[in-house]
């Protein structure tokens, strides 16, 4: 018999309160009113001093609370804008390593998904290995063979994991609301929004069909990149809870001795890693956001093979331009330009003291760039930069936090492969070429054209929005202007916006003379009509 949901949730909250109280965070639980008498008694008996190794205690507490909390801790490890650096570094040690699901449950998930037996005459597979080759909190991977002889890897979601995660997410939302309520001095941390971002990410990991779509897109993106590939997705054997891909054979990219023994050129692999990162970030604006070494292999032909696309990051063109400009400024040790880039991108408030911000960037960057070439870390630079967000009210950029996590892995891989090479020096010519193309005169013209098209589209939709607003007011019985005045107002606004957009376009293109005069007259006429109809 299943216990009522509310009772099970209260039991879970009691366990959370107990773990917090027994890991040096009793004061936190007391202030959040989590089973106050019980936690207060534990606090009284154990004392209320914060442990010296708070980060380690938080890590241990999250590990005891299970998969959802472990993944939440892994996400928090990138948020040095929220956590002290020592705590964030400790959370990076969290391991998503759990015992495998019993095979009887794996079989049930697959057979219920496809309404067919797992093996046998009418089965999906000719053979299916019962012992998984990898197991994590959300899914595990088994090797299998299709009826046509193809060897495949089958990723199967854990039975009932969706229900467990949804229950834990509801508890995390409650804890975030309590934290926001009882710690008003930390509302700048936006705890409910952090949980909301995390919920979107982990729910995305639950949908293996979505992961298959990510893999398919990456395969297309890398089609023109030499030496990089993605295993083929077998869509007929893929479902929300099951993902089947071609089976790959390779060596994990962080095992340098095995790679050298197999005859691979590690410096060439390092160069390919640099090209891979550059292509994902700058060309596609779409990157693998869970690139730990266990997800990167080198096959017999020396190609880098990526797997596990549950988490992806996206960068719009504006962010890519900012990132390229910032990277080049730092690589040239031009800290004033780097400060200007942040201001131009709108990542710091307009009233920021640019000189003080330049000094802050210099303070964190100089120690990093004073090292030997192989030890220079742009990922560490970004990590330190995020740590000054509170001081300069820098707006948090979730996509850059995901990118920083990817940078850490890429840098680590590059150092393992060729300790004297630096991935950013290898990628610098590619980034410089991209900047010349996208931030030179042609790129700026294209950016302006895109912005004008977007604004013009918005203005073209204005009459429809005004009509909807008027219809709503009429339904509510509000006083309205006569129909002819409304039509005049709408026509005036449309002409004014169209004329201003046309004028801006002509100015950007360097056009002068009659056309600009006509555009100005259209804008002025629209303004007059709008006034008449107002």
TrEMBL record:
Sequence similarity: Belongs to the protein kinase superfamily. ADCK protein kinase family.
Native species: Mariprofundus erugo
Record-linked InterPro entries: ABC1_dom, Kinase-like_dom_sf, Prot_kinase_dom, UbiB, UbiB_bact, UbiB_kinase
Start and end residues of each Protein kinase domain: 114-431
UniProt xrefs under SUPFAM superfamilies: Protein kinase-like (PK-like) (SSF56112)
Residues passing through the membrane, by range: 12-30, 514-532
Origin superkingdom: Bacteria
PROSITE patterns assigned to the protein according to its UniProt record, in alphabetical order: PROTEIN_KINASE_DOM (PS50011)
Keywords noted in UniProt: ATP-binding, Cell inner membrane, Cell membrane, Kinase, Membrane, Nucleotide-binding, Transferase, Transmembrane, Transmembrane helix, Ubiquinone biosynthesis
GO molecular function: ATP binding; protein kinase activity
Pathway: Cofactor biosynthesis; ubiquinone biosynthesis [regulation]
CDD domains (UniProt xref): UbiB
GO biological process per UniProt: ubiquinone biosynthetic process
Pfam families named among the record's database cross-references: ABC1
Name listed for the protein in its UniProt record: 2-polyprenylphenol 6-hydroxylase
């Amino acid at each position: 018999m299943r216990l009522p949901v509310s009772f099970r949730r209260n039991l879970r909250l009691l366990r959370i309160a107990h773990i917090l109280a027994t890991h040096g965070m009793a004061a936190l639980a007391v202030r959040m009113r989590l089973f106050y008498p019980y936690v207060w008694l534990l606090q009284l008996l154990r004392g209320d001093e914060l442990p010296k190794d708070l980060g380690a205690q938080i890590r241990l507490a999250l590990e005891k609370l299970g998969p959802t909390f472990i993944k939440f801790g892994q996400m928090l490890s990138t948020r040095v804008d929220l956590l002290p650096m020592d705590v964030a570094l400790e959370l990076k040690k969290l391991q998503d390593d759990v015992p495998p699901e019993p095979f009887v449950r794996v079989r049930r998930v697959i057979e219920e998904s496809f309404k067919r037996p797992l093996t046998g005459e009418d089965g999906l597979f000719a053979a299916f290995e019962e012992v998984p080759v990898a197991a994590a909190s959300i899914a595990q991977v088994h090797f299998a063979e299709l009826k046509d002889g193809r060897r495949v890897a089958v990723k199967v979601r854990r039975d009932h994991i969706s229900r467990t995660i949804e229950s834990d997410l509801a508890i995390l939302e409650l804890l975030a609301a309590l934290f926001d309520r009882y710690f008003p001095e930390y509302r700048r941390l936006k705890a409910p929004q952090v949980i909301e971002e995390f919920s979107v990410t982990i729910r995305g990991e639950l949908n293996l069909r979505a992961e298959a779509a990510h893999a398919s897109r990456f395969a297309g993106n890398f089609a023109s990149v030499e030496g990089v590939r993605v295993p083929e997705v077998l869509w007929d054997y893929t479902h929300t809870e099951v993902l089947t891909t071609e089976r790959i054979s390779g060596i994990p990219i962080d095992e340098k001795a095995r790679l050298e023994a197999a005859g691979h050129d590690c410096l060439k692999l390092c160069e390919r890693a640099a090209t891979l990162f550059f292509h994902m970030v700058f060309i596609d604006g779409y990157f693998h956001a869970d690139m730990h070494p266990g997800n990167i292999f080198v096959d017999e032909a020396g190609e880098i093979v990526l797997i596990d696309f549950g988490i992806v990051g996206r960068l719009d063109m504006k962010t890519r331009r900012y990132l390229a400009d910032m990277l080049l400024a730092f690589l040239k040790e031009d800290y004033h330009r780097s400060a200007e880039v942040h201001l131009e991108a709108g990542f710091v408030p307009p009233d920021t003291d640019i000189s003080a911000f330049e000094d802050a960037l210099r303070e964190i960057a100089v120690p990093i760039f004073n090292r030997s070439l192989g030890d220079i870390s742009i990922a560490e630079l970004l990590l330190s930069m995020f740590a000054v967000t509170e001081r300069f009210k820098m707006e948090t950029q979730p996509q850059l936090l995901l990118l920083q996590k990817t940078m850490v892995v890429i840098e680590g891989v590059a150092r393992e492969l060729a300790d004297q090479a630096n991935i950013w020096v290898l990628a610098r010519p590619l980034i410089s070429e991209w900047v010349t193309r996208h931030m030179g005169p042609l790129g700026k013209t294209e950016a302006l054209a895109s912005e004008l098209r977007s604004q013009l589209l918005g203005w073209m939709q204005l009459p429809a929005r005004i009509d909807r607003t008027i219809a709503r007011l009429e339904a509510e019985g509000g006083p309205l202007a006569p129909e002819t005045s409304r039509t005049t107002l709408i026509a005036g606004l449309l002409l004014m916006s169209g004329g201003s957009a046309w004028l801006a376009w002509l100015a950007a293109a360097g056009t002068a003379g009659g056309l600009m005069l006509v555009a100005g007259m259209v804008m002025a006429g629209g303004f007059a009509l709008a006034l008449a109809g107002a």
